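Fresh eyes needed here. Kindly weigh in on this sequence plus structure tokens:
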Amino acid sequence: MNVEGAEEAGRGKILIVDDTTANIEILYQILKGEFDVLFAKSGADGIRMVREHTPDLVLLDIMMPGMDGYQVCRVLKQDPATAHIPVVFVTAMSNDEDETRGLEEGAIDYLTKPIRPAIVVARVRNHLELKRRGDLLEKLSTELAWKNRELEQLARQDGLTGVANRRHFDESLCSEIQRAARNGRNLSLIMCDIDHFKKFNDLYGHFAGDKCLQLVGELLRKSFKRAGEVVARYGGEEFAVILPDTSAELAGHLAERLRLELLAQALPHAHSEFGMVTMSLGVAGALVTREHNQEWFITAADDALYRSKTAGRNRFTLFDQ
């Protein structure tokens, strides 16, 4: 009945908690052929053994000095690390009140003495099978939850650039506008467009075009990392940045910093008037009100972006209300 021999793979692990050696020996003889058996001779020692060895099932006596079985069960069920381990009371106390109390403390079964070997083995087998199935179901549920989170993330992410996609942008802008309206806060939106991108694609090929989009996406992710900021691919070579709690002036500074960071990459573009890949940006920012809704922010930022394009590209324009 030593601990070292009680961890053989493939066999259920049973912990007997009883202050009487004779009772432990009886249960051990009944169970040893099919299960690995540990034992403890006090309530406190039983709790320690459960925490150290994580048995598959605890057979727990009720009448013990110091800490009785009810108290032991209560401690185990209140601890998230041990609450999932099934507890079966094995006791000479056979009236309905005792059994009811044991089940109310969190035990899953109640066996009365004198011990009937065939009943004990059958009950232990059933409870271990139920635990095995419950553990498997929990594992599958956890895996499914992770897969669902991964799928949800993929559904909200642009596959090429790694930034948010248009769907996530629309949802985020709507929720941020609602939050800003409730709290009386500013919100800013930056719309970015890579200059002469079609010419770049035609000249250098689609593979180079994809690399260019990925570079811009990476610059955007590195530039906007505050909580709540959302970087998205709006469509084609156009990107957008949602900036909660940000004034139009500050958003303009951030847009200019992004423009300069792309220039610093010096990505050649022979069909650009600047000889390299550049970006035009439009910035719209305001204290959110009923008039400053989602449509207003997108229209205003688009208008500012158009002005950047018509003014010669490679610049940002702040929307003038």
The first strand starts at residue 13 and ends at 17. The longest helix spans residues 117-155. The beta strands are 13-17, 36-40, 57-60, 87-91, 109-112, 186-194, 230-235, 238-244, 279-287, 316-318. Residues 44 and 55 are 16 Å apart (CA to CA).
